[in-house]
Amino acid sequence: MKKTMIRATGRCLPSRLVTNEDLTRWMDTTDEWIRQRTGIEQRYWVPEEGGVGAADLGLEASKIAMDRAGWKPEDIDLIIFATLSPDIFFPGPGCLLQHKLGLETTPALDIRQQCTGFFYGMTTADAYIKSGYYNRVLFVGSEVHSTGLDKSTAGRDVTVIFGDGAGAVCLEGVETDAPVGIRGASLHAQGKHADALMTEAPASRLSQRLTHEMLDQGRHFPVMDGRNVYKLALTRLPEVSYQALEQAGAGVEDVDLIIPHQANMRINQGFQKALNVSEDKMYHNIQRYGNTTAGSIPIALDEALEKGIIGKSSTVLFAGLGAGVTWAALVYQFED
Ligand code: UT7
Question: Structural domain of residue 146, as residue ranges?
Answer without folding.
Answer: 2-175
